[in-house]
Write a structure and sequence with these properties.
single chain, 234 residues, alpha/beta, 7-stranded mixed β-sheet, 6-stranded mixed β-sheet, 7 helices, 13 strands, globular
């Protein structure tokens, strides 16, 4: 499988804009989908075109949570590719869900219970006060967990993924929402993830510079740099 970060406030490749938000394009042997849309659809589509990512190959769009920096590009996406199934958390505005239903192949609203939304792609179910879902991809090498902002706690998301499918996490990536955390708080999260047996991490977006540096120190070569243009193969 391939995961390409197509929108981020960090750049992996030079020359790409670094606007606040996150989106990645996920391709497996069984399905292809877009996870979140960043904050600006025009920039998202330009990034995808420059990276050679074909949005038309996607069969679905998955939203992590309702914040503007994760759903802001949806109008641009649906304008060029309306034949998408959308999987939205129940925290998304009912009015927006209604509108998206009219612009796409339909919206499936995900509640608190974990569920398989695409072949071997699971939602953790909506977690936390903000109402965020993460995706868990079941691969031969283990679980790949992708978070939008990890508002419910990235360690809690990882723990739920393992409980759901009973497999180790080969990769945990996305926004870890540690940008407001101090060193002791970040260290506790790292310790928990190590205890859970997480093999590789890729903290980006709202993880914060301090957390990214601390994950690199703790995980070494198993802490991958994120940012626009980063392609991760499993």
């Amino acid at each position: 499988m391939h995961i390409t970060i197509v929108f981020d406030n960090y750049a992996y490749l030079e020359g790409f804009p670094t606007l606040w938000g996150f989106s990645c394009f996920i391709e497996t042997d069984e399905t292809t989908f877009l996870f979140d849309t960043g904050s600006n659809g025009r920039v998202l589509l330009k990034n995808m075109a420059r990276l050679g990512v074909d949005l038309q190959k996607a069969e679905a769009l998955v939203f992590s949570h309702p914040h503007w920096d994760h759903i802001g590009g949806v109008d641009s996406v649906l304008e060029v590719h309306p034949e998408l199934r959308i999987f939205a958390p129940s925290s998304l505005s009912k009015h927006l869900i209604r509108d998206l239903n009219a612009q796409s192949l339909g919206v499936t609203v995900v509640g608190k219970e974990p569920r398989e939304i695409l072949p071997n792609v699971w939602s953790t179910g909506v977690m936390g006060e903000i109402g965020e879902q993460s995706v868990v991809i079941d691969t031969d090498k283990g679980l790949v967990v992708v978070t939008g902002c990890a508002h419910p706690g990235v360690e809690n998301i990882a723990e739920r993924a393992i409980e759901m499918l009973g497999k180790p996490i080969v990769l945990l990536m996305g926004g870890f929402h540690l940008m407001y955390s101090d060193a002791s708080e970040i260290a506790a999260v790292i310790e928990k993830l190590e205890t859970l047996g997480v093999q590789n991490v890729c903290p980006t977006h709202c993880s914060g510079d301090l957390a990214i540096a601390m994950f690199k120190e703790a995980f070494g070569d198993h802490s991958l740099q994120g940012g626009v243009g980063r392609v991760i193969e499993i």
